[in-house]
């Protein structure tokens, strides 16, 4: 069994405590998907010790996805972590981490194995699990991840992107698709301009790849009534849910 815990669901806004992040528990493999500011506080609130995290997967080097990683690693150090941490992300991530550690006179007391990956790469997570790397369509180089067990796609983590159109084979028959839904279908022009997706576009991808379930994610704070996005998506893909902070999904 696998369990997802959503730590945040919203596109960034000043003072946010809801920046996008998800914990994927896959037996003894515990992967944190993105690590924006404040992620460790929400990890604790959700009942996770940072020591339990075995892998961190970063989609891209925008602050709302990565600025919480250094504080998280420093807390792991304070707690006395000894086992290695695997950090997976785009080109530039290793330099960002090393320079930050140097500038902060911080020398992690445990190994940090950094894998800079590219679209098409497959990384083993151990215990029969792997992550396949895809290319998103955003304003900066951005990856999406598909966590697989054996032949099956368990979780597709696709955020900060225009809809993927044809290049979706990696996501075929995925159990849970977590997809960018920054904007309402009414604001498609904004989604195009800012390289995000609308609720209806997220639903279109879910349908195209024959997902079992869709979670609308990275939602703009401009919408007071998020159910509107849910209604829009459900017109195209019935088994859609809105991300909510600390929501859990069992697979
Ligand atoms: Zn973002
Ligand atoms: Zn972004």
Rg calculated over all Cα atoms:
17 Å
Please state the second-level CATH architecture. 4-Layer Sandwich
Q: What's the number of structural domains?
A: 1
Derived from helix and strand composition plus strand pairing, the structural class reads alpha/beta
CATH-defined topology: Metallo-beta-lactamase, Chain A
Annotation field: number of helices: 7
Question: Count of DSSP E strands?
Answer: 14
N-to-C SSE string, H for helix and E for strand: EEEHEHHEHEEEEEEHHEHEE
What is the arithmetic mean of pLDDT? 96
Q: What do you see in this structure?
A:
The chain is of the alpha/beta class and 251 residues long. It has a single domain (3-250), classed as 4-Layer Sandwich (Metallo-beta-lactamase, Chain A). The chain is 23% helix and 29% strand. It contains 7 helices and 14 strands. Helix 4 (93-103) links the parallel strand 5 (85-89) and strand 6. Helix 6 packs parallel to helix 7 (227-234). One zinc ion is lined by residues 60, 62, 138, 160.
Q: Key terms for this structure?
A:
binds zinc ion, seven-stranded mixed beta sheet, alpha/beta, Metallo-beta-lactamase, Chain A, 251 residues
Please write out the topology.
Layout: E1 3-8, E2 21-26, E3 29-33, H1 39-45, E4 55-57, H2 63-66, H3 69-79, E5 85-89, H4 93-103, E6 112-116, E7 122-126, E8 129-135, E9 143-149, E10 152-158, E11 176-180, H5 188-194, H6 199-208, E12 213-217, H7 227-234, E13 240-242, E14 248-250
Parallel strand pairs: 3-4, 4-5, 5-6, 10-11, 11-12, 12-13
Antiparallel strand pairs: 1-2, 1-14, 2-3, 7-8, 8-9, 9-10
Helix pairs in contact: 6-7
Bound molecules: zinc ion (ZN) (2 copies).
One zinc ion (ZN) binds next to loops.
């Amino acid at each position: 069994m696998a369990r997802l815990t959503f730590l945040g669901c919203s596109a960034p806004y000043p003072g946010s405590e809801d920046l996008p992040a998800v914990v994927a528990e896959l037996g003894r493999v515990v992967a944190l998907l993105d690590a924006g500011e404040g992620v460790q506080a929400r990890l604790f609130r959700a009942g996770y010790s940072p020591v339990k995290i075995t892998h961190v997967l970063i989609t891209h080097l925008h602050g709302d996805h990565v600025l919480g990683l250094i504080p998280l690693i420093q807390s792991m150090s304070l707690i006395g972590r000894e086992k290695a941490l695997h950090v997976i992300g785009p080109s530039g991530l290793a330099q960002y981490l090393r320079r930050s550690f140097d500038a902060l006179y911080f020398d992690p007391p445990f190994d940090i194995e950094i894998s800079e990956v590219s679209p098409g790469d497959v990384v083993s997570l151990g215990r029969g699990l792997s992550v396949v790397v895809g290319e998103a369509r955003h304003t900066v180089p951005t990856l999406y991840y598909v966590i697989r067990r054996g032949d099956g796609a368990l979780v597709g983590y696709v955020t900060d992107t225009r809809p993927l159109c044809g290049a979706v084979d990696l996501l075929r028959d995925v159990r849970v698709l977590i997809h960018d839904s920054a904007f309402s279908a009414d604001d498609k022009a904004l989604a195009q301009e800012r390289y995000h997706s609308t609720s209806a576009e997220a639903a279109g991808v879910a349908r195209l790849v024959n997902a079992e379930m869709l979670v609308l994610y990275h939602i703009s704070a401009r919408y007071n009534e998020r159910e509107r996005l849910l209604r829009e998506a459900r017109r195209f893909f019935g088994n859609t849910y809105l991300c909510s902070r600390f929501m859990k999904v069992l697979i």
